[in-house]
Amino acid sequence: MTTTATDDRSVRTREAARADLLAVFRIEKASFPQPWPYRAFERFLGEPGFLVADSGEVVGYVLADTTPKSGRPIGHVKDIAVAPFARGQGIGATLLARAIDAMREQKAGSVRLEVRESNEPALGLYRRFGFTHRTTSPGYYADGEDALVLVRDLDG
Ligand SMILES: CC(C)(COP(=O)(O)OP(=O)(O)OC[C@H]1O[C@@H](n2cnc3c(N)ncnc32)[C@H](O)[C@@H]1OP(=O)(O)O)[C@@H](O)C(=O)NCCC(=O)NCCS
């Protein structure tokens, strides 16, 4: 469990539960031009890397999982967002750190993710966590924007 001071409130990071899904979906819609559907989140309930930041209300979430591979499993950050009013207070960083911990616990040797090349806040967050550019997926997003594929090693 992780606590972060934001204003006078504390924000707790915990596993997502069914009762959180509506709030998660609202933040998703406020954050992305092509949001995931509600049922996509439902499918990941119980996943150790599906976490919410809770300050009395859900103010952010991260969804990460691991896939078996020959050798070590590989982690994937599939989605992360913080409610617009709660950004810039360290919540995204806390969520990402906890998701990385969860993937480590599942023995992942590395973590990958995709990010829009224009998404400066997210790129700043990932760089701060040691992610580096591995490849570019041209036209990855529905509007034609390229995705940068970033990777971080979890050893050491
Ligand atoms: C990306 C996002 C999750 C960051 O959450 P956040 O709670 O605002 O981030 P934090 O306050 O924890 O900041 C952590 C780091 O992110 C980077 N960052 C955050 N906001 C930034 C901004 N507006 N510009 C540049 N870098 C920024 C910085 O490196 C920051 O570290 P610092 O405070 O030491 O400078 C949030 O902006 C968001 O929800 N964006 C919309 C959804 C999205 O794009 N998700 C990523 C999809 S790949």
Automatic annotation (TrEMBL):
Output the Gene Ontology terms for molecular function: protein-N-terminal amino-acid acetyltransferase activity
Q: Which PROSITE patterns match?
A: GNAT
According to the entry, every stretch annotated as the N-acetyltransferase domain falls at 11-155
Q: Which keywords, in A-to-Z order, does the entry hold?
A: Acyltransferase, Transferase
GO cellular component labels: NatA complex
Q: Please, which domain of life does this record's source organism belong to?
A: Archaea
Which ranges does the record mark as transmembrane? none
Matches recorded under PANTHER family:
N-TERMINAL ACETYLTRANSFERASE (PTHR23091), N-TERMINAL AMINO-ACID N(ALPHA)-ACETYLTRANSFERASE NATA (PTHR23091:SF4)
Q: What is this protein called?
A: Ribosomal-protein-alanine acetyltransferase
Organism listed in the record:
Halococcus saccharolyticus DSM 5350
Q: Please spell out the taxonomic lineage of the organism that makes this protein.
A: Archaea, Methanobacteriati, Methanobacteriota, Stenosarchaea group, Halobacteria
